Amino acid sequence: MEHRTEKDSLGELRIPSDKYWGIHTQRAVGNFPFISGKVPLSLVHAMAMVKKAAAMANRELQDLSDEKAVAIITACEEICEGQWDDHFPLSALQGGAGTSTNMNLNEVIANRASELLGGCRGEYRQVHPLDHVNLHQSTNDVYPTALKCAAIAGIRSLADAAAQLQGALQRKEKEFAHIVKVGRTEWQEAVPMTLGGEFSAWAEAVARDRWRTFKCEERLRVVNMGGTAIGTGMGSPRDYIFLVIERLREVSGFGLSRGENAMGETANADAFVEVAGILKAHAVNLIKLSGDLRVLNYLGEVKLPVCQAGSSIMPGKVNPVIAEAVIQSGLKVMANDQLVSEAASRGVLQINEFLPLLSSALLESLELLTAADKMLAVHIDGVQADEQRCRYFFDHSRMIVTALVPHIGYGRSEELLKEFDAAGGGDLRSFLEVKLGKDMVMDVFSPEKLMAPGYRRLNVKQG
């Protein structure tokens, strides 16, 4: 492999000639040899978007020539399109509050822009990583601003995915609305309900998640771009500070605004903690939903779609693998919420040094939940109900008599259960139809009556 040599204040390093990154990135590759995962590409693309907006503002203010600005903007657009994803090799876990990632962007953009202007990689005569690409910027305003942009994009995708899941659950709610079954609490049979009602409860929880997720975008729209190192804007012209936000709004399509106190936005990361908490709430609901599906599948009341063979030793075994995968994704999101909280709390004075960990955890959670929602929505669409199995549990449950209490009284209901036990048990519904009349029992146990709020009085004399 051919190499080129670049210099900095620490000395020289050899860099693969086919790479757009430079010496700062190369040092970081050696300094942070973690294998836990690379910088999220969604953050890389968002940071390129921020760099594009900065170049547009600097060009408009004539701090960058048209030639240089156009080359930088073009390089940024190529990065946003994913053309150079393999030129961002850094570990997500890195010291320096994200400086290495910022420099990785600066170097890739500078080398690509130089190439577009007829130069060679590593020369930096046409376009310099710091003097031109990073002009009027700092890692401390670029990185958190890019993270907020990446998170907003992720939130929008998640809201759409949650809508898909909600829709799938609501379709099953309607499809199964006529199927009566036994509810369960404390792992014991409880009062009767419908299978459609069970799906409706899940749909309602996901609907809340969808709304909370959609609304939490508002927490991320206030950015510190233009604040440079600590939020004061030192090193950048006043007209640039206001103009760069306008250009970033245009480039991103997001309703961004400059923080009234940019120092506060630079020093504190609590907005990310709030968003991570909302993501955790959604993860909790997904875990609960998936766990319930596993139970109903085990009971035989529903049949989950068959996705793959379930055992290497037991022929014919099928496992609820989609539900299990969603549960594991949810647990990871819950763990990531704790990481976001810890990272945000450990910032010192004017910046947060641990944004790299925070960003990795937050963006991973967004990706995990989006994938889980989409995967689960498709799975839910394939769920089938075993109506006979639901009816069997219903007919043989002593708890269904609870629906009769308002009409025949607690005492009479208890007497009927004693008579039923004395007769040897079995099908309680059929027994009740004999004792109380089929029409009455069918009316009380109809899906509509079971799911209606409260009960309507019947003309039945209490014994």
Primary descriptors:
59% helix, mainly alpha, Fumarase C, Chain B, domain 1, 18 helices, Ribonucleotide Reductase Protein R1, domain 1, 3 domains, two-stranded antiparallel sheet, 463 residues, Fumarase C, Chain A, domain 2
Describe the structure concisely.
By secondary structure, the chain is mainly alpha-helical. The protein has 18 helices and 8 strands.
What does this entry look like structurally?
With 463 residues, the protein is mainly α. It folds into three domains: 3-135, Fumarase C, Chain B, domain 1; 141-387, Fumarase C, Chain A, domain 2, CATH 1.20.200.10; 396-451, Ribonucleotide Reductase Protein R1, domain 1 (Orthogonal Bundle). The protein has 18 helices and eight strands. It has helices spanning 23-31, 41-60, 66-80, 99-116, 129-133, 139-175, 195-215, 238-252, 262-267, 270-299, 321-345, 355-381, 387-395, 405-408, 410-422, 428-436, 438-444, 447-451; strands at 3-8, 11-16, 180-185, 188-194, 222-223, 257-258, 302-303, 384-385. The strands form four sheets. The chain has a two-stranded antiparallel sheet. A two-stranded antiparallel sheet has the order 3-4. Strand 5 (222-223), helix 8 (238-252) and strand 6 form a beta-alpha-beta unit. The radius of gyration is 30 Å and the shape is elongated. The mean pLDDT is 93.
Q: Could you name the CATH class of the largest domain?
A: Mainly Alpha
Give the overall shape, derived from the CA principal axes: elongated
Secondary-structure element order, N to C: EEHHHHHHEEHEHEHHEHHEHHHHHH
| Helicity, as a percent range | 55-70%
Whole-angstrom Rg = 30 Å
Mean pLDDT level = 93
Q: Classify the oligomer.
A: single chain
Distance between the termini: 94 Å
Helix segment count? 18
Strand order of the largest sheet: 1-2
By CATH, the superfamily of the largest domain comes out as Fumarase/aspartase (Central domain)
* Largest sheet features: 2 strands, antiparallel
**Based on the structure given, which CATH architecture of the largest domain is correct?**
Up-down Bundle
What do we call the CATH topology of the largest domain?
Answer: Fumarase C, Chain A, domain 2
Structural class estimated from helices and strands = mainly alpha
How many strands? 8
Low-confidence stretches: none
Count of the separate structural domains? 3
Query: Hey, roughly how much beta strand do the residues contain?
Result: 5-15%
